[in-house]
Amino acid sequence: MAFSTIDSFSSSTWRIETATGSHKFTVNKHSLTKGFGGGNHVQSGVFTVGGHEWAIRYYPDGRAHITRIYPDGSYGRSYESDVGTGNVSIYLTHLSDTSGDAKVAFKFHILDKNGSTLSTSSVEVPVTLKDSKSSLGWERIMSRGDFEGKFVDEDDRLTIRCTVTVLKSPHLRVSKTRSVASLQVPKPPPSDLHQHLGELLESGEGADVAFDVGGETFAAHRCVLAARSPVFRAELFGPMKEKTMQCIKIEDMDAAVFKAMLHFMYRDSLHQLEELTTESPTSMLQHLLAAADRYGLERLKSICEGELCKDIDVSTVATTLALAEQHRCRELKDACFDFIDSPDTMIAVMQTEGFEYLTISCPLLKELVEKID
């Protein structure tokens, strides 16, 4: 299924705020609560959570009824014959008269004298208490005797903690519909990776290999060279890697050409060739193209080929054509043929020193003559 282009968008977020509080209720001289009878309670001080007043009610001999909580969050009383006959209960009671309904979740903890939790009970699904004095709680925990033996400490003290979470009114936030065309998406800055790598080359920091080229030494980083050149990868990391990694000697290459090649491998751009040598830019480009082909730098080779195509004249066309043939540069070769498009131009080219080198390749010379016949 194809999706249409999105011209605008909007969003919405449903949120509900909550307020949580905790109250610790301690019953000292617990033994004095004996004989309270079912339905009678000891009440904590009033505490406030979420704008509502609450209290903990402890029933030493249980209540006269229990409360059923239904799946929809509603609740109701259920009278049963075994309630109020000595089973301990603890309740959370909503005391507020004017604050309205309270949607609440809560948890009871019974503590020992060190404040460690011995037992817990909770209502995790929020329940709405609709009126003052409404109560929900932990019913029929166990018989009073068992309860005292387990929870009342040696100082005749019972400690209950209740954590209450009140849910406030939910609200929906809807954003304005916006046109995609109106969005002002910040444009990321251009990549500066080449700048950082170039600075690394110039500083020599972390260099782990050196090259001796025409009597000059160049420090470099094996990982950078291997990532850029399959030839260097084989020489530096492959089975035929150089045995002496301290300094590798490069034959048949000028130092200026190697420096320009290193510059490209780190910065991905051509060096200002006039700054490297007194040779003509065309001669440097020819040598750099040969070096790029030697080390498998296809992008550098293509750049050199394009620059040489724009700088063909009578004095350079013969050597450039021989170079194009030797290094399989089809576009450069065609550009040379296009330049030598007449017998007069051919005669002028034949007077140059480069033509002598060109004649070494007889098939190429024959192809050239056929082009201008």
- Low-pLDDT segments: none
Q: Using the CA coordinates, give the radius of gyration.
A: 45 Å
* The level-1 CATH class of the domain at 13-171: Mainly Beta
Relative helix content: 25-40%
Number of strands: 16
**What's the CATH architecture name of the domain at 13-171?**
Sandwich
Query: Averaged pLDDT, please?
Result: 82
> How many strands, which pairing sense, and closed or not: the largest β-sheet?
5 strands, antiparallel
Describe this structure in words.
The protein has 373 residues and is α+β, with helices and mostly antiparallel strands. Among the domains are: 13-171, Apoptosis, Tumor Necrosis Factor Receptor Associated Protein 2, Chain A (Sandwich), CATH 2.60.210; 193-276, Potassium Channel Kv1.1, Chain A, CATH 3.30.710.10. The chain has helices at residues 144-151, 193-203, 222-228, 230-237, 255-267, 281-294, 298-309, 317-326, 330-339, 343-350, 353-358, 362-372; strands at 8-9, 12-27, 42-43, 47-49, 52-59, 66-69, 75-78, 89-94, 102-111, 117-129, 134-138, 158-174, 178-179, 209-213, 216-220, 248-250. The strands form five sheets. Strands 3, 4, 5, 8 and 11 form a five-stranded antiparallel β-sheet that branches. Strands 2-12-9-10 form a four-stranded antiparallel β-sheet, with no helix packed on it. A three-stranded mixed β-sheet has the order 15-14-16. Helix 3 packs across helix 4, helix 5 crosses helix 6 (281-294) and helix 6 (281-294) packs antiparallel against helix 7. The longest helix is centred in the last third of the chain and has 14 residues, at 281-294. The two termini are 61 Å apart.
